[in-house]
Amino acid sequence: MIEEVNGKTELTKKNVRNVVDAVVGAITNTLKEELEMVKIMIRGVLLSVLVLVFGISCTAIAQAKKPVPKSVERKISIISVYDNYQVNSNLTTGWGFGCVIRTPTTNILFDTGGSSSILLSNMEKMSVDPKDIDIVVISHIHMDHRGGLNGFLERNGNVKVYIPASFLDPIREKIKSYGAEYQDVKDSIQISDNIWTTGEMGTPIEEQSLVLDTKEGLVVITGCVHPGVVHITEKAKQILPDRNIYLVMGGFHLGSASDLELKSIIKGFRNLGVKKAAPSHCSRDRCRELFKEEYKEDYIENGVGNIIEI
């Protein structure tokens, strides 16, 4: 009996140990699972933090490398480097016209005057390096506007020259001989950011002018306006009809115009909403006087050495 009792007693102890072991094992397994879940949660949190930090860093880098849109910064400088009217007495005058247009993306030489030696000398005195020029635009065939081209190309042949399509082939061949490119211009085209040519206008002398879209409005730059300065200004409005005309400058070709004709042209400017005027080169003294009377503080005394910043 005792053995049987002892046997029963022994069996009960084993059962207790088994239960205890089972409980301990269950608790241990549960703790292991909980620990593993904690590890997974920690990994997830750390991964999320890393992704967030890395994402911010990448965004910052991308923003730092992202270029400023060209339309944001539109500051333009127009530097008169050739004219028979003078603003800076340290510079040399000469019959003709030439100006440098500096933009955030491109430097353009519009017309080259009649002499490369005068052109290059004035550019040097005004700290304009010929090698910084990207584009050359020639308004028309007359030598007082293209006479300095060959001498300029000797200093910088790494440019593209926009010429009226009516030019003869020897001019094209000469441009190519300096290693420069040329492009014939017949119709209005965009040649750079915010800059257009009017295309060839007029007969028998075909001429192109430049139209700049600035933060203040359109700027029309003319070489000698054989087609008529009001007509060219109207063409600028046709190219960009939603923009006002801020400034018309350059040669107005009014040497033989009467006062009545000059006043009619000034009235045409007013009708087109032209805010400022800067006649020079072939405009004639009387033309400048009448424009000054009409435009007052909006009249710009233009000539070699003048800098207009917009």
Describe this structure in words.
The chain has a 7-stranded mixed sheet. Helix 2 packs across helix 4 (149-155) and helix 7 (259-271) crosses helix 8. It is of the alpha/beta class and 310 residues long. It has 2 domains: 1-66; 77-309, Metallo-beta-lactamase, Chain A. It has helices spanning 2-65, 116-125, 143-146, 149-155, 169-177, 229-239, 259-271, 285-295; strands spanning 77-83, 97-102, 107-110, 135-137, 160-164, 181-185, 189-192, 195-197, 210-214, 217-222, 245-251, 276-280, 307-309. A hairpin with a 2-residue loop joins strand 7 (189-192) and strand 8.
Task: Give a quick summary of the entry.
With 310 residues, the chain is α/β, with parallel strands linked by helices.
How many domain modules?
Answer: 2
Distance between the termini: 119 Å
Low-confidence stretches: 1-9, 56-72
**Strand order within the widest sheet?**
6-5-4-3-2-1-13
Assign the CATH topology of the largest domain.
Metallo-beta-lactamase, Chain A
Shape: elongated
- The fraction of residues in strands falls at 15-25%
The percent of residues in helical segments reads 40-55%
Q: Which architecture of the largest domain per CATH?
A: 4-Layer Sandwich
